Amino acid sequence: MADSTHCVKHIESFVDSSSTPAQQAASVNAIAALVKNDLITLESLVREMELYLTTTDSFLRARGTHLLAELLACLASKPLETETILSLIGFFTERLVDWKALHGALIGCLSLLRRKGNVGIVSGSKALAVAQSFLQNVQVQSLRQSDRKLCFELLRCLLERYPDDVVHLEDVLIPGICESIDGEKDPECLMLAFQIVEVLVHLFPDPTGPLASYATDLFENLSCYFPIHFTHPKGEDIDLKQVELSRTLMMAFASTPLFEPFSIPLLLEKLSSSLPLAKVESLKYLSYCSDKYGAARMAKHVKVMWSALKDIIYTSPESVLSLESELVDGMSFQESHTVTEALVLLQKVIYQNSNLLLDLIVSDEDIKRTVDDIHQLREYNDINLQSKQRLHAVGCILYLSAKASIGSCNRVFEGFFPRLVHALGISLENSDAPLSSPCNFGATYLCVELLAGCRALVVGTEGNTSTNVLAQEAWCNMLCSYGTSLTKIFSFALVAGQDGSTQNAYLHYGVKGLQILATFPGNFYPLSKSVYESILLKLISVVTMNFKDALLWKLALKALVEIGSFVDKFKDTEKARSFDAIVVDRIASLMLSDDLTMPSQLKLELISSIGTTGLSCMQKILQGLESSLSASLSGVYVNGDPELLGIATSLLECYSCKVLPWFDSIGGHEEVQFHFALNIWDQIENNMSFCISSQEQKLLPAAMTAMQYAVGRCLVESQKVIVDKAFSMLSSTTFTPVKDLMNETTPVKVEGFKSNDDLDCFSCRDKWIISLFASVVVALRPQAHITNVKVILQLFLTTQLYGHLPSAQALGSIINKLPVKVENMDASKVFSLEEAMDMIFNSRVWILCNEGPTKCPVAGNNNEIGFRNSVLLQSHAIDGLAWIGKGLLMRGHEKVKDVVVTLLSCILSDHDQGLLSIMRSAADAFHILISDSEACLNKRLHATMRPLYKQRLFSIVLPVILSLISKADSSIQRAMLYRAFANVVCGTPLSAILSEAKKLIPILVDSLSVLSEDILHKDIVYSILLVLSGVLTDKKRSEVVVENAHIIIRRLIALVSYPHMMVIRETAIQCLTAMSELPHARIYPMRTQVLLSISKTLDDPKRAVRQEAVKCRQAWASFA
Amino acid sequence: MVSGLINANPIVYEKKERRPRTGPVDLEDEDIKDPEHPYSLEDLKVITEDAIEVDDKRSYVRVTFTPTVEHCSMATVIGLCLRVKLMRSLPSRYKVDIRVAPGTHATEAAVNKQLNDKERVAAALENPNLVDMVDDCLAPSFE
Predict the structure, then answer these.
(1) How far is A1118 from chain B (nearest CA, A)?
(2) Residue B100 in contact with residue B65, Cβ under 8 Å?
(3) I need a labelling partner for A1050 at 20 to 30 A (CA). Which of A201, A481, A635, A1035 fits?
(4) A1111: nearest CA in chain B?
(5) pLDDT value of position A757
(6) What is the pTM of this model?
(7) Backbone phi, then psi, for B64, in 5-degree steps?
(8) Cα separation of A967 and A969, whole Å?
(9) B interface test, pick of A1056, A1077, A1090, A1099 with most B CB neighbours within 10 Å
(10) DSSP assignments along A504-553, one per residue
(11) What's the pLDDT score for residue B8?
């Protein structure tokens, strides 16, 4: 049989002592494939292998067994007959005796035991036999790591898959496992061992059963690993994390309550360890174990635990008072990891053994002393750090115990609340008595913490307990009776705090207290409605009157926002009504009021923050905003009122930065955006005459941004409506060319207008309409087809020649989004991209770019002014073309090449000196082409974007520009070509540049030398230098750098004394420092030159440069 | 060389907050490592900011340092480190004067003479062992 000889060959190659692991794996796979395809049966294979399995040569026998075992592992999913499995498992069970072939035997047993039910499994009795043989014959700890791991895996597999069978082995099983784990040190094996213990314990759930007698031994084996701590943190290839291992050990610890007598004392003892890790770990373990062991067993440890925890919380040296947050938060400590864990544990214990622990807390001497001595902690500034720490600790404990349960809340309240209230100077009788002195800080702090705890308790039990039950509780009654006075105290803290900035802590806790009192959830409310409303009134008065105190204002606003979102979240109608009446209405009307004492910036911040608390709130506020926006805008249009101008600007900014994005974030409210956009157009429609001075620079951009944002978020249908509306407005302009365009009866005569074109000849209203129309167009979605594309294109082509940038951007945007082919529509109505391109290539923009201004018809072409105007005209045309090109480039259209060629020809055209500005704008057009723009053609404004479009431009432009540079004859042309090249290179992603590094480096260096001659190019020089430094620091391309080291260094030396820009000098020196790491043989010849030039820069006027120079000098001086 | 450390147990001081820079010339000798200990000279108060005089107009720098113990044989090495550091950090127009603070060293005059003798400094820098040692001390100051 051909297959059997084939097979024998593979077997021989496996057992061959010289074969590598890879070869072995290959032969196993080959044989497994044969068996899987039934070309050879497993029985006949075993017969073939007989010699290898039974020989007395232990090496061959081990290899043979290994091969068979590996094969079985490969065949895990192939159905096998019961007899086959029987005989195989019998064989491997027997082989467990043979320690020389043990590796194979273990793998074999394991792969057989792991088989799934539907492909034939090992029977229970056989598994038992495996376990017996294993426990009898295998000395786990004498094996090497890989075998030990297999042993543990085998044990785990037996325990998990055959629990009912191995359970009979109890007398040998548990001691056997103990013995095999004893002394294990490898993390991977330990992981398995811990899991084994966990499974094992679950096999014997009976607390009086066989496990009880072995619990001591078993735990002893585990306990020596606590806390898990890797002594060799960067072990060879252990990918096991300390955290995982520690977690597994924790599960093993907590697996049975039988471990409790041993584990809890151990963990408590480790709490006093000096190793922070041990502390944190013990706290974690204690939290976890106390859950598993149950309250009854833990009860006897509560006392010890409390004292240990108290020590940690009270005296943890890592608790550092952070000064920075102190300014904001009053008193806050940066909690260390230990303290956090301790607090978690404390909470667990309070839940579990509430009464026991509360007895301890209430009678605790330290807490008692702190509370009794609280009258000493009157002034925040007088409290020393230690007392602050203690106060903080007590605050934490009170918070947690109040939060835990109703019972504990009652006890804590009864224990401490009266004393605190007394310290605050409140008594039930004279709740109306006026407060004179500032209230006690310590008591305020503790009160607030206690209240915070109650609130958390009520929020937590919301829905479970009926509120009537809660209202009967003792703490609730106490809170009710003191509610009014507490509110008063907290409100008073706000006033008391105002006299100096050092009182920030009072402010903080006053506001926090009010906030807590106002946010008890649902219909449960210990305080009357009037109290709630008085709190709101207090806060709102702070927010509207006390805006000079920035911190208080911020805190109060934050509290109001919290209360508002809380009311909104819990759907509390009664409270929502009060909130609406007191806060929202007041604030919504704020903008309309003529009260100018409050700065409008603050007003807007207030309004928009309150608005974010809920939808209904925002809608109400939106009305206020809207009416004030229309009022201020129309005021601006009609009177040009400078005060209203500022308000309108900040209103628009508020819309585009806060209100509209908020609606966007909650989703589904695009009608707001739609309405806003229409509103602005309506405003313009209603005001035929504009009185804004043309010097005003801020309002229009703000309006355009808001318009862009609003339109960009609208859906296609609404966008169409807005465009139509805006388009209809265009016909009302007074500007002649536009009027001609709109009036379709007269032929379009774009070519003939005068040459002294300037933006000033727009009337103000026209400028607004055209600019806003441009921003609508920029934000359109590609699906929103505009009906009058042709006219709109003409319009923008005309207006952009006046130097109107938004028009140019709108052009690019239209070109970017026009459909290529028109489907399912009447072709005569819809304009396609091809037609648009034809139109552009016939337009004046294109002609101007291609032929130069001299050949254009220029009115009054007799003097210098005419010439200058025509130059200006052409550079506007070039800008427009650049944006059109950007639109084309981003959608991946072929015509972008034509644009590039035209732009390059503008650079090259044979002009004299006067036309420098044209060449320069042509060179800078490449910057427009390749850089990202915020104003248009980005993802937010729905641009069509092909991936890697920048790389495409780079690969189109690079060869053309390189050949042009070599041909250029005048120095100006060359400089401008280099400028264009630099613009492209700086915009291209570094990875694309690196792949071309070999070609690019010489040109980069050349461009540096050409461009650094003129101060005009300093920014671009800096950008090139940054690209160069990116190439220099890339390790993979260093051979290219090495090749060009000399020219690079020579250029850098020249730039080191570049007089016009400090960062250029600095970066050049940094590049030189980086160059010093190149192979010495290559750079040594340059060393003297570099040192000489660097020693001059040591005297540089700028410190940063000198510092870099010192580093660089050291680097170059020290390698010789 | 002496076996064992000369000052086995130095006092480490806290670094002083640097005063804001005003002059055009700044000295960079923060963080020169002590030849014996892993501390910087400033940590050990061998050098303090007050002990450095700079006169930018006359291009003159004078550094006065205080060895940790009176018989410190490392004083010359420290001085050499200071000189090399200044040589590498300052423009060549400067004249650098380095001195041991009066009354803090047993052989004050000799050390001063040695440190400010151009020939002897140059000769010292020809000695590969010394240069290695100096470079070692200066290494962290350039990071």
Answers:
(1) 8
(2) yes
(3) A1035
(4) B142
(5) 45
(6) 0.68
(7) -115, 120
(8) 6
(9) A1099
(10) HHHHHHHHHHHHHHHT--SS--SS-HHHHHHHHHHHHHHHHH-TTSHHHH
(11) 62
